[in-house]
């Protein structure tokens, strides 16, 4: 990434995020002022509509501001992806390649769009560094998220958490004692809401842990879905390669992971799909001789 692109993307992301946040707060305050104590149901409906609208404009308006998206070229990879999508009944409208290499060496794939109009997006780094079989396995994992309804689950979780927060806030939105305790003369929806968000940070911690727990479970299920599609070895080698490329940790304590990580570690995921290394190697990475194997003076590690 060049310095000019780094600062351009940084400024652009700050402007866009601030505009979205300001618009959300503006709409919320207007709803509270107009509907008063009955603002809860109208706020929840507005949030759901906002989420669907945001998911629609991301691939059309926001993403192209940061990255270049081009159609995937004809060839073996495109044919394999189309076959995978067809077997799973996935409503693919377009196959795109994103120039992720302009910002990092990270490799990934993801879906964009509404449920009836999906777009598959591949990082160019994924295409450059991964064989076709592993790319298909990674996409089978992503298809597992779609097939098992994980995207809807995450959205419902977010909506539920917001509904709970708004329900709690309904008891404070015109509370004069709250604002006076912080030196304000009179209550207002905006001031009360800001104070409320600061006072409920323990609830945010609980929400974060519950989301991590759900997403981690979904990752295990999506890995298993790829395994059931016949890509056990490919998804395992793909996960190892992804971990190696991103320089991520191999293993963390389970409790720390649940509290701080949205995805399970590589070792946890490999164990969950029942993966066994095909080859034994020395600790310094050289192939094991027959004599060393018989002595047992080795450790098991996958060679890609």
UniProtKB/TrEMBL annotation:
GO CC, any one term: endoplasmic reticulum membrane
Ligand binding (Zn(2+)): 141, 145, 219
EC id: 3.4.24.84
GO biological process, one term: CAAX-box protein processing
Annotated localization: Endoplasmic reticulum membrane
Co-factor binding details: Binds 1 zinc ion per subunit.
Gene3D superfamilies: Metalloproteases ('zincins'), catalytic domain
Recorded catalytic activity of this chain's protein: Hydrolyzes the peptide bond -P2-(S-farnesyl or geranylgeranyl)C-P1'-P2'-P3'-COOH where P1' and P2' are amino acids with aliphatic side chains and P3' is any C-terminal residue
CDD domains: M48A_Zmpste24p_like
Annotated function: Proteolytically removes the C-terminal three residues of farnesylated proteins.
Similarity-based family: Belongs to the peptidase M48A family.
Name by which UniProt lists this protein: CAAX prenyl protease
């Amino acid at each position: 990434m060049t310095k000019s692109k780094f600062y351009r993307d940084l400024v652009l992301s700050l402007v866009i995020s601030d505009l979205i946040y300001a618009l959300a707060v503006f709409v919320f305050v207007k709803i509270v002022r107009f509907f008063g104590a009955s603002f809860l149901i109208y706020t929840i409906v507005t949030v759901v509509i906002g989420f669907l609208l945001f998911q629609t404009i991301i691939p059309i308006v926001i993403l192209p501001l940061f990255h270049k998206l081009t159609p995937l070229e004809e060839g073996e990879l495109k044919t394999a992806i189309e076959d995978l999508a067809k077997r799973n009944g996935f409503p693919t409208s377009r196959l795109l390649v994103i120039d992720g290499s302009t910002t990092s060496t990270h490799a990934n794939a993801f879906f964009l769009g509404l449920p009836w109009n999906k777009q598959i997006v591949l990082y160019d780094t994924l295409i450059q560094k991964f064989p076709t079989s592993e790319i298909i396995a990674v996409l089978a994992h992503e298809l597992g998220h779609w097939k098992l309804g994980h995207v809807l689950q995450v959205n419902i979780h977010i909506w539920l958490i917001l509904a709970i927060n708004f329900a709690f806030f309904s008891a404070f939105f015109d509370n004069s004692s709250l604002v006076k305790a912080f030196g304000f003369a009179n209550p207002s929806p905006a001031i009360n809401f800001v104070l409320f968000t600061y006072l409920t940070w323990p609830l945010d911690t609980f929400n974060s842990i519950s989301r991590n727990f759900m997403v981690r479970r979904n990752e295990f299920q999506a890995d298993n879905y790829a395994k059931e599609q016949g890509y056990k070895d490919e998804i395992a080698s793909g996960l190892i390669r992804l971990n190696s490329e991103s320089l991520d940790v191999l293993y963390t304590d389970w409790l720390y992971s649940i509290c701080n990580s949205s995805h399970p570690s590589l070792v946890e995921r490999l164990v969950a799909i029942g993966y066994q290394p095909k080859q034994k190697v020395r600790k310094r990475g050289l192939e094991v001789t027959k004599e060393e194997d018989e002595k047992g003076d080795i450790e098991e590690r996958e060679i890609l």
